[in-house]
Each structure stands twice: as C-alpha cells, then as structure tokens.
Known about the structure:
The protein has a single domain, classed as Tetracycline Repressor, domain 2 (Orthogonal Bundle), CATH 1.10.357.10. The chain has 11 helices and no strands. It has helices at 2-17, 36-52, 59-66, 70-74, 80-103, 109-121, 135-145, 155-160, 165-181, 188-208, 221-233. It starts with a helix and ends with a helix.
Amino acid sequence: MLLYLQTNQQIMKNLLSGLKISVPEKIYIKDPETSELGKKIIENGILLINEIGFESFTFKKLGLKIGSNESSIYRYFESKHKFLLYLTSWYWAWLEYQLVIETFSISDKQEKLEKAISVITKPVEKDTNFSHINETLLHKIIVNESSKSYLTKEVKDENKKGYFEVYKRLIFRIEKMILDIEPSYVYAISLASTIVEGSLHQHFLKEYFPSITNLGENKTSTIFFTEMIIKTIS
C-alpha cells in the first residue's frame, strides 16, 4: 500500500510539473503574474468587469480603481480585448488543472469521463491557491463575456497565433476520454466542445432565461450533460 501511494504521488508530481496555470505569451506585453501591480490589475479587472460588464470596462476606469495611471496597464496589455483573452485563457488553464487533478487516478474510463464532465459543469468555488483571482467571479465573466474574445473579425489570425491553445487543449483532453470509451465514435471532438460551450450556455440561460432551460436546484448542468453524453456514446 505504501509503495502504491508513493507511486501515485510521483505520477502526480510528474504530471503537474508539466502543467501550469499559464497563458500564451503573445496575449500580453508583460506577464502580470511577475509583479504586484500586474496581479492587482488582474484582481481588480475581474471585479470591475463583473460589476459593470466588459462593454463598459476601460483601462481608464481600471486605473482609477487601482490608483494607477492608465498607461501603467498598457505596459501589460495592448488592449482590453487582449485583457479579456488573458482572463479567458487563464480560466481554461485553471480548469484544465482541476480536471487533471480530479481524474488522473481514476482507471475506469466511464467514471473518468463522468468526473471530467463534473469538473467542467459544476459551480465554481474560490481556489485559495490564487489569492489575487476570484475564480467564482471569473466564471461569471466567462459565462457572460467569453464569446466576445473570439466573435471578432481577427479570430482566424489570433487562432493561428495560438491565443486559444489552452481552450482547445482542454477540449482535446475530453475528446480523448470519449474515444477511450468508444473509439469508433466519429463526433468525439464535437461532443467534447459541446460539453464545454454548452455548459456555459446553460449557466447563462439559468441566470437570465430560466424559462427555456430545465436546470434548477435539483436539475444541475452536471446531471444533464453526464446523462446526455453517456447515452450518446453508449
């Protein structure tokens, strides 16, 4: 038993050593995680977008909130679009981190996929490992604003530059779990992306259009997607 635990711990250590909460470097000018001002920009940017919405959000307003010049924010991000790309990429990287931790020791293929679906769809709680980021508020921003990061004329070029690599990598992980259960299923990547995007959409409907979703206190997004996905590939 001791040897088993040590082996599992080593596997986890090796796995997490190559997995970091990191954002593609081309999105930012200076990594905000490298300074207290940068972390302050991220922390308060999340609070401000959650408060007033992304369309009303400006670096000038953020500068006033943190007591710094607007120009200091531009040393980290060239535009508020890049700032939103940073927040969405950080969120997907954090979610991928949670998925790996929660599923790495599960050997049963269906159980592993069900756990992954739970990680993706369940309500988000604050992670104390990142004191300057409120993941609960960030999740609300992802639900309400993340589509604005890619519904642009520049999306093809930004995709080529790797801005969405973390988002796509998370979906590829889920695709693999689906194929591990049913290798012949030809829509695995579509199903995987449906879990990720569909979960956000259902959270949005629950909040703003509750009359057109069945989700509620006793009918969660996790139950819905787990039932749908397992029945689809069975």
